[in-house]
Amino acid sequence: MPASTATATSTAATATSAVLNVPAAAPAEAAAHYAARLAFEADVSDVHADLASGVPGIVVVDTRSKAAWDQGHLPGAVHLPTAQIAERAAESIDPSLTVVTYCWGPGCNGATRAALAFARLGYRVKEMLGGFEYWVREGFAYDTAAGSEQRPIDDLTAPRSGISCAC
């Protein structure tokens, strides 16, 4: 065996895995975990597909401020800032619908706080992963105080073709 191959093999044999440092969960535990995540979260593409096809049973709620709403929001969304959910949800949101909350983006936990507020009121709820940021980055149209807008697809978040990644 050449010296370079022997060195590479011995280095690989002694390396500690950052991934395997904590062993992966048993398959049944992993299945339960991932099924639970899907019960609590929806992604931007799935929300867009449901809204575009008119699937009944969901209402999308923008939980941001009025200034943020005016800057841009999902078409058809209901504007209900997180701080107002407890007092206004009953008059604004049909309790038979599943609420999908969103905020700015992955760096903001406003949609999580809003989902918690709705859940505490007895609503079925999911959080839209990626928030408004990823809605825009995936090239979907959005409404502003001045009208409808749409930006080009960010190819780091979706295929340039605009066709779903089918994941």
Relevant terms:
167 residues, alpha/beta, 5-stranded parallel sheet, two-stranded antiparallel sheet
What's the pLDDT, averaged over the residues?
91
Mass-distribution shape = globular
Task: Give the helices and strands as they follow along the chain.
Answer: HHEHEHEHEHEHEE
Coarse structural class: alpha/beta
* SS element count, helices: 7
State the major sheet. 5 strands, parallel
Q: Strand arrangement, largest sheet?
A: 1-5-4-2-3
Tell me the span between the first and last alpha carbons.
Answer: 43 Å
Uncertain residue segments: none
Q: Work out the number of β strands.
A: 7
Cα gyration radius (Å): 21 Å
* Percent of residues in helices: 40-55%
Strand content: 15-25%
Characterization of the model:
The chain is α/β, with parallel strands linked by helices. 41% of the residues lie in helices and 16% in strands. It contains 7 helices and 7 strands; from the N terminus they run ααβαβαβαβαβαββ. It has a 5-stranded parallel sheet. Strands 6-7 form a two-stranded antiparallel sheet. The N and C termini lie far apart (43 Å).
